[in-house]
């Protein structure tokens, strides 16, 4: 399996996908066209408009982008494309739409069988075991919280460390993940902005300039250094 799971598609002060440019050039170096999954964005932007943003973002790589909703026969046509990119937005909406369009099983089978998969934010969330560690509001309800299960853990994109100067009295991101572990056993990786996880076969690698926060049930959270890692 070949995965590129990013916390975000855009860093402050940068263009769309700019910080991932070198990584994307290598990741999709064997194809000139990919399928984009635009289902995570609510009504403020159409699937066509969201696909247009992704299409422009991939111009520097000379890679053509086609929205999965633009395919007349996706179950037959998807094999014509050399990879898949699922964009960010609302994870609940994304998963609900994947189930409703019956594209959940289609995409899962394609990636398991070798199609490169890139996700950002919500697109990375659905690569994990469930969407239970998303930061999004449940504006809609998917039939199940089970996600693709490409990796044996959950991801928390946009992970934010506690601000010691803040007067906010609500839960920190870490506290929310510990609450998740009160009911769920799988590890969770808090992925900070500017970081991404790359998977090749069964090898996991944290990339980018920052550590990630690794949470295991009934264990003290630790900092995961950039580089190869396993959860055993």
Features:
single chain; 232 residues; alpha/beta; Rossmann fold; eight-stranded mixed sheet; four-stranded mixed sheet; 23% helix; globular
SSE inventory with pairings:
Layout: E1 2-6, H1 21-27, E2 33-37, H2 47-57, E3 64-67, H3 74-77, E4 84-86, H4 91-100, H5 103-112, E5 117-120, H6 122-125, E6 154-157, H7 173-180, E7 188-191, E8 196-200, E9 203-207, E10 212-215, E11 222-224, E12 227-229
Parallel strand pairs: 1-5, 2-3, 2-4, 4-5, 6-7
Antiparallel strand pairs: 1-8, 7-10, 8-9, 9-12, 10-11
Describe this structure in words.
It contains 7 helices and 12 strands. It is α/β, with parallel strands linked by helices and 232 residues long. The mean pLDDT is 94.
CATH architecture: 3-Layer(aba) Sandwich
Beta strands, count: 12
- By CATH reckoning, the class would read Alpha Beta
How would you describe the shape? globular
Derived structural class: alpha/beta
Count, helices:
7
Rg for CA atoms: 17 Å
Q: Under CATH, the topology is which?
A: Rossmann fold
**Runs with pLDDT <50, length 5+?**
none
The largest sheet is: 8 strands, mixed
- The proportion of residues in beta strands is 15-25%
């Amino acid at each position: 399996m070949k995965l590129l799971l990013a916390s975000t598609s855009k860093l402050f002060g940068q263009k769309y996908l700019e910080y991932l440019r070198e990584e994307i050039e290598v990741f999709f170096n064997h194809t000139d066209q990919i399928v984009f999954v635009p289902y995570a964005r609510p009504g403020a932007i159409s699937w066509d408009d969201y696909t247009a943003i992704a299409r422009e973002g991939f111009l520097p790589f000379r890679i053509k982008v086609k929205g999965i909703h633009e395919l007349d026969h996706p179950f037959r046509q998807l094999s014509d494309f050399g990879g898949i990119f699922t964009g960010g937005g609302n994870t609940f909406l994304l998963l609900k739409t994947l189930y409703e369009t019956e594209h959940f099983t289609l995409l899962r089978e394609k990636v398991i069988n070798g199609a490169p998969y890139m996700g950002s934010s919500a697109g990375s969330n659905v690569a994990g075991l469930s969407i239970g560690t998303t930061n999004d509001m449940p504006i809609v309800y998917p039939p199940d919280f089970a996600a693709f299960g490409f990796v044996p853990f959950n991801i928390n994109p946009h992970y934010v460390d506690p601000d010691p100067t803040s007067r906010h009295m609500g839960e920190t991101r870490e506290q929310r993940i510990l609450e998740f572990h009160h009911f769920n056993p799988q590890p969770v990786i808090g992925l900070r902005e500017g970081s991404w996880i790359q998977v090749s076969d069964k090898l996991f690698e944290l990339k980018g300039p920052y550590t990630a926060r690794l949470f295991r049930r009934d264990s003290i959270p630790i900092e995961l250094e950039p580089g190869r890692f396993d959860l055993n």
